[in-house]
Structures are given as C-alpha cells and as structure tokens.
Amino acid sequence: MLLYSSTSIFDEAAARVVKEEEWWFESEEGNLLKWHWPLGLIYDSHTIAASIRPTTSSSSLQSVPLRLVLHLVSPPTEKLLLSPSAEACKQAFMGQMKEADFIRWGNTKRMTGLRKAEQDGLWEGIKEHNFDEYWRVASKVTPTTTPARSQSPPLPSSTSLHTRPPSADPQTGNGGPDRDGAYNVRNIPVRIYLPDGPVIQDVVPPLLDDGSPNSLHDFLSKNLSKLFPASPSEPPFHELAYPIIQGVEIPGDAEMAWLGACMAGADGWVNVCIGIIRDHGSRL
Amino acid sequence: MSFTTLTHAEFEEGCKAFISKCALDRDPISRRKYPPGWHWHEHTSFPQLGYMSRSLSIPAHSLCEDHLDDETDEVYVEVPEDDAEAPQVIRELVTVTLSVVYSPTYQVPALYFTAHHTSGSPLTLPEITRLPLFREGLFPDEQGGSFALNVPDSSFAMLSQGDHPTLGTPSWYLHPCHTSAVSPGSLYWVTLSTSLHITVV
Q1: Four-residue CA torsion sign, A47, A48, A49, A52
Q2: A116 — contact with chain B (CB < 8 Å)?
Q3: pLDDT, position A9
Q4: Which Pfam family name is an example for this entry (chain B) (predicted)?
Q5: Which residues touch A116 (CB under 8 Å, ≥6 apart)?
Q6: Cβ B106–A111 below 8 Å, yes or no?
C-alpha cells in the first residue's frame, strides 16, 4: 500500500534501474513495515510501539508523522512476504475482503456476487484515493446499521447511503430488509495488535450468550484478561492499556457489531491496536 | 463451502493425540500414517495460538524413479543399470517446515508452510508448485502471479502468502477449501480433516 506514492520521486533513468519489488520500508525507529498491511494499521501500530518504548517521553506521545526509511535492495525475506508488486497488493487486499465476507456471513456470496468490474472497482478506488468509487461497491458488501436496533448513536448523515431511517426499517429479523444488518452477522472480522506480540484473532459474535451486544470491553477482557480485567473490582484497579481503532481511542462500551460496520478498514477488518499506559498515565 | 468446525481446544487435543501416535508406532505402514517429527508448540502468553509443526528436507521436484526411505525421509535416486557411466542426477534439497495451525476464520485446521533453498533463500511460487508435496497436475498452468495461486471455481486463492498466525513470519498458506487436494502418493503431506483425526495421506 505504501509503494504507489514512492514511485514518483525517482527520475526516469533511476527508475529504470531500481526494481520496486526489492523495496522495503522501516520506520525511523527501525521497525520493519509489512507491505501487505493497510497504511492506517501501520500507523496505529507505530503509535502503540511508541507506548512501550522507554525513550519515549510523554510529550512525544502526540500524533506525529510516521517517518519512513526506504530501502531499495535486499528485503529481509525472513520477515516480509515476497514480491510486493501492485498486483500482489491487490491480491492481498481482495483476499482479506473475501475472508471478512466469509466471517460475517458464513459464505462469500456477497463478494462473489459482484461483477469482475465491480470487484476491480474496489481496488481502483483505493489505488486512486477515490472513496466514492470504492464505496459504490463496498456498500453492497458492508453490514448496515440501523439506529433502532442498538444502543449505539446513529451515524451522521454523510453516510446516509448506508443507513435507513428507523421508521422505514422495522425489526424483521433474518431475511427481511435487515438481512445485511450489522447485528445479523455471524461474527465480526477483528484482529488485535499488540505493541510487541502476536496478532490475535478470535471468534467474535455480535451478541453474547445472554443476548446483550458484545462490547469492545467484553471482547478485550476475554482475549487480554490481564490488560483488560473483566470488572473494575478486579486487580489492578486502574487502567493498564487502551484500544485504538483507525487512530481513535475507543470506549469500552462500543459494540463490536457497530464497530464491524462503521470502524472497519477498507478490507472489512476491524484492527484494534493496544497501547500500554505507563506509570505517569499519559497516552495518545 | 461448508465445514465441520472445531474449537481450538478440540484442535489441540487432536494434534496431541496425533503426535503421541507418531511417537508410538514403529512398523513401516504405521510410520507412513504417523511420521515422526511433529511437535506441539505453545505460545508463551496466548494458549489459543498453540500449533504443531514438522521440518523436513525434500527434493525440489519429484522424479518417478525416486524411492523414499521411511526411516530417514531421505531420497535416493536410481541410476539406470545400462548406463553406469551416466552422471547421477543431482537434485537440490529444499527445507520445508509444515505448520498445522488453527484458523479462527474457518474454525478448522489450516496448513502454513515455508520452503527454503539450502542457501537460505525462500522458494518462489513456481518453485513451490513443483515440490513433491502436492498432487501432480494439481496446479493450473502458470498464472504469472508471484503472490498467490488462483484456481478456477474458487473465490479464494488456493495458495497464498500470509503471516504465520503464531510466529508472525512470512509463510505460504493453503486455503482450507483446498486441503483435500493433496498428493495421495506423498509421504510428507498431511491431510487435514475437520474431525479430531489428523491423518497423513
């Protein structure tokens, strides 16, 4: 995803010699950037990496540009996927979208039901930074939210293509107009990224066994019980960590189903990055 | 596409049962079914990331004259008797690490693997498709891609690159839709079924 903006900085003679598939990026701090990750995830990952760096002072936890080092040769193949071409980026992206589609509905009919031109349109929209072109197709496969169904706040009117007014959308359950509803998904495509740890993926249903909406806090306390204790009456009695999605710190009562419809990345995945709170209690 | 799903706990139980069978059985036929070398790996902090893996050395591509030694997994090549002067075919060996992991997306076992030349450099996609791990004729003609291998009639790529779910290192990933497409003649391959049994084909 980073490769497109870089090609314009070389003059033609130089560009003929360098091979883009040999390029790779590091952050200024020496962290390797995974080329198949969305840029927003790379940025949030950079933010949380700063939260555990001993040299980071509280003032530098502000939002700062991500400074990159571009290498032109010898990609570390023990750490990076191979052959990052434009086509590879597209295949990686489409693979993630289909997987998200499968997690939501147990099949990929919504994605495979798109014409080839539409599927290509998703990627073209991203490549050309054209949200409208992307959303024209993505709105057909992304879950919808209806304010009447949940406790969450209604979406702002700029996304009115994606919501219907409560009066026009009675609660009909499966098969009705709410067939694509965020709370009708089987599971939400979510991954958790730690500052220095593996990527965690779990089965995340929209509702808990008792019928209540699965919240971000429920989800995090299940998967990271030491960082997010289930109840405030359990030790350590103060916050240890915070979740960031799309650069925003998200409150624990946010509902996973709503996040899956409104805070997912372009590939359909909700990427939760966990920052660590240090003793002086400051954070992003 | 339908799957019988497993929980991670069931997956772990199945893997450990398989590994203990590998430790017990010694007759050649059983060893084909339960080859040595599979180990269970835990993640230090996250039990749901446990997986099993096996490393082996195999030829870069198969020849029909190959004999596979059950004891050592080594391959030796027949030299034709009528041409004793002919040079032996020297074939490169490739180091393959197979990992059977739990896929939280499909809730079934999935296969991740790496393949490296003895120099340490990773195999390219065309080289991967020539490994004797796979059933002959399985892959369509070269699609010109280097990231993933797509096949007709499937919305998911059969083989693609991805980060190993526990190690985070680059791997090749066989999509669970396609794990039945394994080589029946290969000693090295693991067929992943969605029951508790993980059998070697």
Answers
A1: positive
A2: no
A3: 59
A4: Autophagy_act_C
A5: none
A6: no
